[in-house]
Each structure stands twice: as C-alpha cells, then as structure tokens.
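Lay summary. Proteins are chains of building blocks that fold into shapes, and those shapes determine what they do. In this project we predict the shape from the chain. Here is one chain we studied, written as its sequence of building blocks.
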Amino acid sequence: MQKRLPEYLKRPIIDTEKTRTVRKILKHNQLNTVCENARCPNKNECYTKNTATFLIMGNVCTRNCRYCNITCQKPLPLDGSEPEHIALAVKELGLKYSVITSVTRDDLPDGGAKHFAECIYAIRKLCPDVKTEILTPDFKGNKEALNTIIKSHPDVFNHNIETVKRLFRTARPQGSYECSLDVLKYIKSKGNITTKSGLMIGLGETFEEIEQTLSDLKNCGCDIVTVGQYIQPSKQHLCVEKYYTPDEYKTIQTLARKIGIKHYQIGPLVRSSYRAAELV
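And here is the predicted shape, written in a compact code that computers can read:
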C-alpha cells in the first residue's frame, strides 16, 4: 500500500503574474521544461524567481527509468533552432544562471552532446555574463561525447547518480552505477569544471548505502551533491518505501560533512536543479 504524503512534502499551487509570464516566455519559444514534464514540486517557487530548468531534445525519452514521469517513446529529430530559442528565453527571463537538462537520446551517435554544446554556445553568445549548468545523461560513457561537453566548458556539469548501487538496476535498468561514476570522474579529470550529482532517497536504501554512495561521489571528485525525497509520480512507477523525516535529513547532512563533501543541498524537497544558482 502506498504511503501517505507527509504534510512537509506538500506545496501550494501558486498562480501569479510572474509565474504566468514565465510560462508565456517558455511557450513563445516552444520550449520544454523538466519542471512541467517531471512534475517537480518546486516549479512554482522557481517560476516566481524567474527560473526554470530547460528540457532539450524533446519531451520523450529512449530509456524507461522506473521513477521518472517523462514518457518513453521513439523521439523526434532534433530541433536545430532550439539552442537559439533557449538563449532567447534566458535573455527574456533576465537570468543570471541557466540550467539545461535533457531526455536521454540513445538514438543519437553522441547522445546529444553536440546539441548541449550548441545551447551553451548560443547562451554565451547572446548573454555572455550568464553562467550555465547542464544536467546530462550518461552518454553511455562515450568519451568522444564527453570531450564535446568539456570543450564547451559549462560552468557546472551535473550528472545524477539517482540511487544507491544495490537499487540501481531496479530504478535505472538501462543504466550503470559504475558508468555514472566514471562519467563524473572523467569530466573532473579532463576539464576545470565544477561537477555535481544528485541522489533521491526513499526507494528502500539504508543509511549505510547512502553513506557509501556519498563516499563514491566524493572519490570521483564531485564538488556538489544534492539529496532529496523520491515522490512517486504515478501508480505505474516505483513505490515509495520510506519518507525521511526532517531530522533524518540532518543526519544525512552530517554524513556528507563527515565524508568531506563541502557543498551540498540536502532536504525533503531538494531536486538536482533546485536553487542551483544559490548553491554554486
């Protein structure tokens, strides 16, 4: 039986002129956001601050991760005008910090790395003072694709580990825990780029497994870590095994400090892009 959502995880619906303006700008530029597609609980808070996490390369994914609300289907061809539209939206929203993520595109030879780079170049050209964080798939560990990302030099490279090693194949059957760690390690070793990763909890992991995952991320040179509660998007997705209490999040913060992770955001509603600019 699915557990009842605790009150501290509920967010009110906010509809203001500012949130409507953000939606209007996104719609005008024909852009997707992970805020809408992944049903993020923080989207209205972010919209009130004129921020959003852009979702590039379409809104359907080639992988079927069992925690994610994004549809798994055959994707459409890439939109060559998307990088320009992203840059225009960044300018219209008056952003100082932009966050770009994507669906996984295993159908593309480079997994979409060149498209990520083109978005970074477009933002840099139109808004040279804006910093850019990208949240990418694993590109199947393709070093050539990762080199394309490194060459574009995002200010922050984020790739989420998502869950502990024991549960990885259950949650991400088409991914690999080791591959995700190797991607983070490679980016850090080859470029002077801040690296970041996120972990969702509540799938049945133990505190010992959380600690081990945080240690693995630290050993990869990961600079920033986020940890937040998994919330089931629908009855077809993995069930929540545990809702962590605010006090338990404080325990995890203590674990992160003990391991030596200096920069982290750990709390019930934390998501990998939540308050990204403030964290950096």
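What the prediction tells us: The chain has a mean pLDDT of 87.
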